Amino acid sequence: MARRIILANPRGFCAGVDRAIQTVDTILKTARPHSAAAQAHANTNADADGAPHALPPVYVRRQIVHNRHVVEQLAARGAVFVEELDEIPDEAAAAGVPVVFSAHGVSPDVQREADRRGLTIIDATCPLVGKVHREVLRFVREGYEIVYIGHNGHDEAVGVVGEAPDHVHLIEHAADVDGLDFAPGTKLVLLTQTTLSVDETADVIDALQKRFPWIELPPSSDICYATSNRQEAVKLVAQQADAMVIVGSANSSNSVRLMEVADEALGARGTAHRVDDAAEMDPSWFDGVDTIGVSSGASVPDELVTGVVERLRTLGFDEVDTVETIQENMHFVLPKALRSV
């Protein structure tokens, strides 16, 4: 009997991730030498041996998307990744070196710091994340308290909560609902992190509605179309598989959840594994496995999936099929500052 691979489709890049990566890629491809004045300023800050500090073509605050390989590839081409804006030297600000905000968005505090320093900002925040930011501002203006379901410390959640920290109450689990205290009559609305799934938030929403029956749900789901689509495809593939491999980084919320969804769908038949790339796969995972499902998170280049498939072929999985649940045609234009580049 042939051992086979079933690829889930859709998988990999979503429109927001693609836009963010294209943003940095476009800057790298069109980077021009810095002005003579800026380079002269850099020369005054030369190393001890007289070599000037070269200014990079672009800085990126945090990982542009949560994938190690994407970040490493862009860094190899000259992009400099920083955790915070204070790591960007003043001469870079004076030279107008662009600074890209990642797909996950930033808080107003970060934007104010950028404005104070006169940094040239290119905002690659996913439009769906930006939508949640705008909802926060609108609901606060209308007098609401906001319950936000998200992962504490995730870049997206930090940015959203930062819009109105006194009015946005972050919870992760149903048990966290007990820690909330709103008087009857308080205007209350629910928002969610875009990378969470309907399944993942269902028990939290149920607990919220039992405790605060008047809480309003958002006018439309904040859960990203790509998150839902990838999870539905994985569930379908898992019905036909004995094990699954999900390609994605450990700090990618949607990739980790995709693995959990795969594991739940497999049940007693098998196990789901998350890997950054083919090198992390352990051949012993596939002992006794005839059919293995493969998918990837929304920030994963398909070349990494190809690498996994090729590795599985060397382990005897010769037949490759694809299960498609829906065709995605979503596209986001580049940030305004780059559209004429």
Automatic annotation (TrEMBL):
Pfam families: LYTB. The active site is at E156. InterPro entries: LytB/IspH (IPR003451). It comes from the Bacteria. Its cofactor is [4Fe-4S] cluster. Its EC number is 1.17.7.4. [4Fe-4S] cluster binds at C14, C126, C224. It is an enzyme of class 1 (oxidoreductase). Pathway: Isoprenoid biosynthesis; dimethylallyl diphosphate biosynthesis; dimethylallyl diphosphate from (2E)-4-hydroxy-3-methylbutenyl diphosphate: step 1/1; Isoprenoid biosynthesis; isopentenyl diphosphate biosynthesis via DXP pathway; isopentenyl diphosphate from 1-deoxy-D-xylulose 5-phosphate: step 6/6. Keywords: 4Fe-4S, Iron, Iron-sulfur, Isoprene biosynthesis, Metal-binding, Oxidoreductase. (2E)-4-hydroxy-3-methylbut-2-enyl diphosphate binds at H66, H104, H154, T194, S252, S253, N254, S299. Dimethylallyl diphosphate binds at H66, H104, H154, S252, S253, N254, S299. The keyword Oxidoreductase applies. This is 4-hydroxy-3-methylbut-2-enyl diphosphate reductase. The gene is ispH.
